[in-house]
Amino acid sequence: MNVLEFLQNRQSNPHLQGATPDQNSINDILKAGMRAPDHAGLTPWRFTVVKDEGLEKLSKTFKSAAVSDGCDEMKIEKAAKMPFRAPLIIIVSTKYHQHVKVPKKEQLIAAGCATHAMQMAACSIGLGAMWRTGDMSYHPLVKERLGIELHEDIVGFLYIGEKAKELPLKTSKSLDDYVEYF
Ligand SMILES: Cc1cc2nc3c(=O)[nH]c(=O)nc-3n(C[C@H](O)[C@H](O)[C@H](O)COP(=O)(O)O)c2cc1C
């Protein structure tokens, strides 16, 4: 498959399993994230790699966050299980800079581009990946435990692993509904 076909046919896969991707693969994915378009070269993102016992720590963190919210037992258990949906998670957060020409929203977009690039990189080496956010992305306790300052944003939890199953290719949306020429 060439690059164009790859981009036009990519899709997420939430069914992830298997061993932790090796360090070369993880580095290849991270390097793709580092090439994201970046106004003024601010590098307004941070990547937190979660694997092995890190998944346990993240599970405890999510559990504590759900407990602190007064969730019922079912929701607490659900939160605790979330990190185990893949053997590897890369958490992308912002690292905002003050810059006269680069507002915060551009920096958030750049961090989003980094997330997308890493998803594409993971797919390009045959892995599956799924970008998730949800309540835990916005939770102060989660940020605190991850060492992310409260004024920063968690852009996403990028779940990565071997595909437990191949999903049928979704139909592409029609250009006509979303594109105008001016
Ligand atoms: C910023 C962002 C946050 C997302 N958060 C979630 C999420 O929490 N749960 C979820 O099921 N999908 C989430 N998604 C959507 C999936 O990553 C995915 O794009 C969607 O299921 C459509 O599948 P596709 O990528 O194959 O088109 C999010 C996407 C983005 C860009």
Order of helices and strands: HEHEHHEHEHE
- State which percent range the strand residues make up: 15-25%
- At the fourth level of CATH, the homologous superfamily is NADH Oxidase
Mean pLDDT value: 97
Distance between the termini: 33 Å
User: Count the helices. How many?
Assistant: 6
Structure report:
- This protein has helices at residues 3-9, 23-34, 53-68, 73-81, 104-124, 140-146; strands at 16-17, 45-51, 88-94, 128-132, 154-163.
- It has 182 residues and is α+β, with helices and mostly antiparallel strands.
- The chain has one domain: NADH Oxidase.
- Strands 1, 2, 3, 4 and 5 form a five-stranded antiparallel sheet that branches.
- The radius of gyration is 17 Å and the shape is globular.
- It binds flavin mononucleotide.
- Flavin mononucleotide is lined by residues 11-12, 130-134, 156.
